[in-house]
Amino acid sequence: MALLEVDNLSIAFGGVKAVQNVSFSVDRGLVYSVIGPNGAGKTTLFNLITGVYTPSEGDIRLDGKSIAGTAPHRLALKGMARTFQNLQICMNMTALENVMVGAHLQLDRNMVKAMLRFPGIARRDRELKDEARELMRFVGLESYWNLGANSMPYGALKRLEIARALAAKPQILFLDEPAAGLNTHETAEIDELVRKVADSGVTVVLVEHDMKMVMNISDRILVLDYGKKLTEGTAREVRENPDVIAAYLGSNA
User: What pTM did the predictor assign?
Assistant: First the structure.
């Protein structure tokens, strides 16, 4: 059974269908990319799957159970994490503190125990800090542990956001344009990191405009156009599909 199943998903805004009857599935451990021209419905699809929007039609299943319309914080408890196009970093915190914020689902929520600093709470806090440091090593940011996020370069902040998402221990990670705004070197670092995340056992679904990166790291690719599924396949199948070429370059290209 696939980890994620999307079945005839649709949503309309003011009578305009932004996503129309889209279906696909994602197996565990894959890098699955969603591409398409501007306005194709890629981010809207992400918002539907991750609980930001509720679909008007269709279903979404995670581990075989329907999650359509489930709130984002409840999806996080089910093992779903996400980054956004615009950085969601706490700039007044250190890099390490930002990663630790991502592990809040694992913290003991008993406020009285926390206020009294019971030994178990303090021990778990130390463990979370160690886990956060390990995640920063994993994404190549160990030299930034105690640096304020507002002093970090943009490319490092992109990787920091991925580390924070991983701190929630997700089984599936959604990345919305992780290479946006990055130079060639920084994009190569994200490229390597995405594959590393998938190899660690976390399924990755991403929206990305950098076609070189998409073709390099994707196991499967879904192509959207005007909110509809245009095609799906391997990088080679998508690259050679005449409908994809027409959608990106125009029918007269």
Answer: 0.90
